[in-house]
Amino acid sequence: MLASALGFSLMGVCVKQLGGRIPAVEVVMARGIVSGLLSWWLLRRAGIAPWGERRLLLVWRGVIGTLALFCVYQALAMLPMASATVLQYLYPTFTALLAWLSLGEPIGKRVLVAIVLGWLGVLLVAQPMALFQAAVPLPPLAVAVALLGALCTSLAYVSVRSLRHSEHPLVIVFYFPLVALVISLPLVALNPVVPTPVEVLWLLGVGLFTQLGQVWLTMGLMRLPAARATAISYVQVGFAALWGWLIFGESIGGWTIVGATLVLAATVVSLTRSSPPA
Fold first, then answer.
1. pTM for the complete prediction?
2. Domain boundaries, the chain
3. b/e for 186-215, b at 16 or more Cβ within 10 A?
């Protein structure tokens, strides 16, 4: 899960380097091409049949994961890297709730405290004008896109947990770019933007680092309860703040630090148990 967080943070760097000129749907398509080819090669090398057993659920995981990617890439293009990542990291709380409702994975009453802390953290990061007259608020549409991405991410991760007994991790990873290509190709064909040679390199980086992040993420989710696994990956917020400061010269404001701390506290609270496991 830690390696996955590093991979996804480097993916975010590549998306930010594109500067928003390449539409998010085209970034998703490029990611699908690179990741799909890598996944197919890994499956052939391992001698694993690519189509799996629970195909409808595999397709659903691909659809909701693709929507999450659209939102994450768009939010990264519209927001500072640290802020976009903090908003995305409401998904551990969403994941804990959904895993409890759909998979019966136990959570305590502390998740309610976690929800309050997490959403308060998001409020501080977003800095709405009505509450922070002296602060520069984040664009409401960008915040909404980031929050939708967090919800879709949690739905995708819960589906991975439900597939853990029937599917190989590489099969789950393969369906993601396969479905993403089917969805994104017609949309890109409507209004294609030809990337420059440098942008092609960044698009390749998006595909490579997303593939690495997805493989490690899927392996982690198959070995740990969903709430615990996603809580560990919160370290991506630290990676994102570091890259934003080192590479893009983004300052990290006080409200962002406080908000990130509260979201981290929400994750820790949702992770802990009131009593030892049997």
1. 0.74
2. 2-271
3. ebbeeeeeebeeebeebbebbbbbbbbbbb
